[in-house]
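Q: For a teaching handout, I want to show students what a protein-ligand complex looks like in token form. Below are the inputs, and the small molecule is oxa(dethia)-CoA. Please produce the holo structure.
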Amino acid sequence: MNAPRARIIGTGSYLPEKRMTNEELAKIVDTTSEWISSRTGILERHIAAEEEMTSDLATHAGRRALEAAGCAPEDLDLIICATSTPDLVFPATAAIVQHKIGAHNAKAPAFDIQAVCTGFIYALSIADQFVRSGMSKKVLVVGAETFTRILDWEDRTTCILFGDGAGAVVLDAVEEGGSRGILSTHMHADGSHVELLHVTGGISKGRPRGFDVRHEALGFVDMQGNEVFKQAVKAMGAVAEEALAANGMTVDNVDWLIPHQANKRILQATAKRIGIPEERVIVTVDHHGNTSAASVPLALDEAVRDGRIQPNQIVLLDAFGGGFTWASALLRW
Ligand code: UT7
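A: Here is the structure, written as tokens, with oxa(dethia)-CoA included.
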């Protein structure tokens, strides 16, 4: 008897209404629109409204994914939210989403995953294990962030990169022997480079040295961008190759690569390293910047809705982020 396989049966995403263009950024920090677009490919990012929380973004994206899946909130038997910018220290944002989304009758377990920009693929991989083991059938997996709340708006090397948003998928357990669904996932971490990419404060660490009222959150994003860039390309290349080898495939089998949307140059360099032509790489970073855990499902939803991704195509999800963490998921759509 084959184990059940998880298949994505609906996708959704949400970007807050407020947009911030490069020109607007150039008015508040020492940069130019030209520098940002040529070095990152980012043209604008979205900023959550003051009263909008990560759970609100996640709820919008989750509802859209449920609608696309033709699935009621009560049908869900697991909710996982990947985020580094939760509403509160506790409870988990996933639990808040369960309530907001109206999954009242489900009493389904709900928890958060924290793997920064790799968070969505980590969450997808965990959901896949729950489905394969028979523990869950219908799972909502969300990546949602209000990353602009943890930016230092005086640091031009980071504040130009990030934006807010959410993306979601609904997984269903497919009939035994079905060939569509998640073929494999691979996850990795190396915690020895925290200083290259981290948030300066935390709960047990407390607020950063020199804390002042500018930083209402518990610290802000600090990154050695240049070094992270090199590590990201190397790791995303390696974990993509790992996924292909595990499935006896080559890059020629891949219809679409959906890499973490951090910087257009990182996407191009990763695609080159893997050997996939740029026409088969989904790029959405231009209109939302780096949305951390939301980036992969945002890009996936866009490519599903505009019809690029078609049934039975091979889709490779690939991400890298703080930790460092990196992961891939290979899907037959
Ligand atoms: O999600 C996973 C984590 N994040 C990432 O994957 C991001 C990874 N890194 C990057 O995307 C890029 O490294 C950056 C976009 C952050 C920076 O691009 P870069 O081509 O690596 O530039 P750099 O850090 O080598 O800096 C080049 C110059 C420096 O000036 P000097 O020292 O050469 O005089 C910077 O001070 O560009 C300067 N610079 C800027 N100039 C104008 C840095 N940021 C800016 C800015 N505007 N916003």
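A: Two things your students might notice: The mean pLDDT is 95. The pocket of oxa(dethia)-CoA is lined by residues 31, 35, 39-40, 117, 156-157, 160, 197, 225-226, 228-229, 232, 260, 262-263, 266, 290, 320-321 (CB under 6 Å).
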